[in-house]
Amino acid sequence: MPADGTPDSMLLERLRLGDEQAFVLLVQRYRDSMLRIAACYVPGLAVAEEVVQDTWLAVLRGMARFEGRSSVRTWLFRILVNRARTTGERERRSIAIGDELGPAVDQARFDSTGHWSAPPAHWVDQLEDRLTAEKMVSRIRTAMLDLPARQREVVTLRDIEGLSSDEVCGVLEITEANQRVLLHRGRSRLRQVLETEFGRA
Amino acid sequence: MRLRIRRQDLVCQQVVELVTDYLEDRLSRADRGRLDAHLAGCPHCTEYLAQLRATIALAGRITPADLTPQMRTEMIALYRQWRQG
Q: How close does chain A come to B71, measured CA to CA in Å?
């Protein structure tokens, strides 16, 4: 539930009673999030919009059966993810979790005792510069697309949409341990991308 | 009196694999203590953790690019169609 405005559950209740305005409010509230999530699975904004529309149609058709066991948001995103997966099936590489995993940092950067031999260069301070920060946000946006699909899902939901780990597990129907492993790997890769980017500058 | 045998100190290569569990608050109290102790003496791992936090913060600033304005109209049409159907 957002801090401002009507709770999702109340909007859904109004929607069930046939309130078109409640539908518009829900659609607007989740538009950005849903598009970003859909974009994890399908190429291009136009296809993502189609997925979002399909999702709302499925929501309208299925809302009578929603029992409130999860939050409205978790329920919406689960429908969205299932739709987007089906649509993006051709693009989606289904890889077992283990295959996507490697060390967070290249082993070559540590000595035989496990201490840094090539420690990370300092760059966090440079993000205080607005233009640099904007450039790096844009770099992350691109790098997200290169993450393995399962890592991208988790990082998108956690770090871009700000869902809790419980919510992410509910949406993606994965265990908390798997969620954490995928998050770890995805975040580690994004950090590496930034380090490389700063090294280039 | 210490009953538990003190385990080895963490090395950097282990730290970079534990940072997510650390940020998620999923480490045991003992492991958290070992990690804190390592960070206190290791500027490189401290920088690494700061970089990971910065990465997360930057990801939170991504906004969807170029949303088309006709979507709202299309959604209202979708709703009305569904109601009639």
A: 8
